[in-house]
Amino acid sequence: MKFGTLFSYWNTEWNCDAAGYARLIEKVAAIGFDLLEISADHVHRMSEEELVRLREHAAAHRIGFTINSGPAKEFDLASVEAATRQNGIAYFETILQKMVVLGADSLAGAIYSYWPADFVSTDKEGAWERSIAALKLVAKTAERLGITISLEVLNRNETYILTTSAEAVEYCRRIDSPSMKILLDTYHMNIEEDDLLEAIRTAGPLLGHFHVGENNRKLPGMNNSIDWKRVAEGLHEIGYDGNVVMEPFLLAGGAVGHSIRVWRDLSDGADTAGMDQHITRSLQFLRAEFAAR
Ligand SMILES: [Mn+2]
């Protein structure tokens, strides 16, 4: 398994430019990570030169990239508007092509619609039909470029489309592409699934990416609200050797705090050095918990 973190851990704004990512590559390498998960929207906006420079900088620090997407509503592949779906398909095709330049082969997130859902429409059957047809097209490009797309199973407050592992398996079966997999996230699973091990077992070989966080999105090991031993057992049982990426959100405020609904400090008042200590300890915890036995 390879271990990573989402880029936004140290900040309360989503914005991050190429220079910001270059500094984060150095930081996560020094902490001992294998991966940095970065924003698909930022990849979409970066120039070819910036992507090549980041690729070289990451390689020099032995850091790989995974790409995280919570698409804006204008790119909604489940939209009733054909023009919006078309816009979304073009958006993801550009991201996939830019990922090749960046040297990244894993795109993950709520690619099937937009995030977070505003629940203005909750026509689940229609959303499945429209987004599956759109994703069949995106999957062809992903197959050609050797990229895996992992569809994120979220909780009921963030989507109505995919909220359990079993639903995601059926959804993937209907897309029927070797490039299309599932992203499970312990934070969402903890809300929706009856049993974490059973949910991982259900995804089985379709598990393409794995997000980890405690019940309130604290770092793994910070409160052990998640049964990490049972999660590790599930991952070992299905022979998972893919990416394990933390999505920790400890800081209130800013656009990140608002999107994630962090209304109080969860960092114990940590400064930057304290935040580094928290995540270093969590990485050690995860490597130990998920080690082969
Ligand atoms: Mn997640």
UniProtKB/TrEMBL annotation:
Domain Xylose isomerase-like TIM barrel: 25-264
Domain of life: Bacteria
InterPro entries in alphabetical order: Sugar_Epim/Isomerase (IPR050417), Xyl_isomerase-like_sf (IPR036237), Xyl_isomerase-like_TIM-brl (IPR013022)
UniProt keyword terms in alphabetical order: Isomerase
GO molecular function, one term: isomerase activity
Identification of the protein by name: Sugar phosphate isomerase/epimerase
Taxonomy of the source species: Bacteria, Pseudomonadati, Pseudomonadota, Alphaproteobacteria, Acetobacterales
